[in-house]
Specification:
It is built from three helices and eight strands. It is of the alpha+beta class and 132 residues long. The termini are far apart.
Length: 132
């Protein structure tokens, strides 16, 4: 009798593990299916954040942003560049703990995950930008 309970319990646990593994795999796959790279200008990004539709427009995207550098600064150990916009909002890119040779007026293209962007008082800050 005890051996029968043990076998039934083992089968139930095995089935639960198979179902959990399947759910994890299919959930992971479906979560990644919507991820895309989207081109956006610094003005489009700034306006979307200003109009409170940044996350609904760009959240599941990696942004490829070409622009002209308008500022280069250090915030703690992070290099931060500003990209020119035609908006009252700014677009900023935090490059992380890197040394950058960028200067005002240079053209640059960066990649950034939109989901990690932060709203600032008068700007959108793209976090962990990668300079291409």
């Amino acid at each position: 009798m005890n051996q029968s309970k043990f076998i039934k319990s083992a089968i139930v646990i095995l089935l639960l593990l198979i179902v959990a593994g399947g759910c994890y795999y299919w959930g992971w796959r479906s979560a990644l299916n919507g991820l895309t790279i989207k081109m956006a200008t610094p003005t489009q990004i700034a306006q979307a954040m200003k109009n409170d539709n940044f996350y609904s427009t760009y959240n599941e995207n990696t942004l490829r942003v070409p622009g002209v550098v308008t500022s280069v600064s250090q915030r703690g150990r992070d290099a931060v560049i500003g990209l020119g916009t035609d908006s009252s909002f700014k677009t900023l890119c935090n490059l992380g703990h890197v040394t950058t040779n960028l200067h005002n007026g240079e053209t640059v293209t960066v990649l950034a995950e939109a989901a990690t962007a932060e709203r600032q008082t008068q700007a959108v800050m793209l976090i962990n930008c990668i300079e291409l």
